[in-house]
Amino acid sequence: MKKILEVQDLKVHFELSGGLFSAKKIVHAVDGINFDVFEGETIGIVGESGCGKSSLARALCGLNKITSGSAIFDGKIDLAKANGKQWDEVHKQVQFIFQDPVAALDPRMTVAEIIAEPLRTLFPDMKKDKVLEKVLSTMKLVGLSSNQINRYPQEFSGGQCQRIGIARALILEPKVLICDESVSALDVSIKAQIINLLQDLQQKLKLTIIFISHDLGIIKHICNRIMVMYLGNIMELGEKRALYANPMHPYTNALLSAVPVANPNTEKTKKIQLLEGELPSPLNPPKGCVFSTRCPKVKDECKITRPIYKDVRDRLISCHLVN
Ligand SMILES: Nc1ncnc2c1ncn2[C@@H]1O[C@H](COP(=O)(O)OP(=O)(O)OP(=O)(O)O)[C@@H](O)[C@H]1O
Ligand SMILES: [Mg+2]
Q: How far apart are CA 111 and CA 161, in angstroms?
């Protein structure tokens, strides 16, 4: 399968100015990660709040600066070094869908203006009737009616606003959609509708989707592969079924133990594995394995050396205890 994205040793750090008398501090939001994304797949990113999911996603579409490493898009453009013209190309191909559908839409613009905005920015010479034609066909694609074209976002429900957000992302006919908690703010039935819409669109348009969510049930439903992050690092990455059936990393194990199971017999025997302590600060990540301060299986070497991120059987994993 073709790689649409090749990420190598990618770091996204934020510098916090320490004030007049204290030193600058560095937030290690994403701290040297490696993964590929294959064309047409849905790859899920999970992990506790603050582990760097959004920092990574935003870096992949130019909303955060890449500190070091590389992210090669479509075998051609290194996002870490891309110039203005290359970013224009990436923005046509990689689109972002935000968490809060209502806040993401400008209340002063009509639906047509919102959906047309990326076209008007990146293709300023496109004729008005061509723009309108594309707006209408994209609205139809996401299940919005053409008679809603002159209405304002505040006249729509949260689910409809997310459809507008998806239409705006799709009007450029991108190859990659990055969904950062894009359904988290919606209620259960609307969430299901938007998930189904994304799945339909993926099939129809052969999209690649990077899907970030706290909801491990949705991730299991929609994704082909899953990447588990902890404190700016990848702990485990593998095919969905294998990872859910046999989590190898102690962190994945703890994370998945909290997912409710539909089968009541399984539920009785399964215990939620609670992790002790707080997520350490990305300002000062632990030496050795970043998970060592909370790992129930920690050994001495885990506290000293950072594990190598390696292939173990059917997946990639970063743990001294798994070989
Ligand atoms: N612009 C910024 N400046 C400084 N620190 C930042 C910035 N953006 C993110 N961070 C910090 O980077 C770390 C990772 O944040 P990020 O938003 O990527 O986490 P996340 O996994 O998306 O969390 P959540 O699940 O809550 O959305 C956090 O400690 C956060 O405070
Ligand atoms: Mg986030």
A: 9
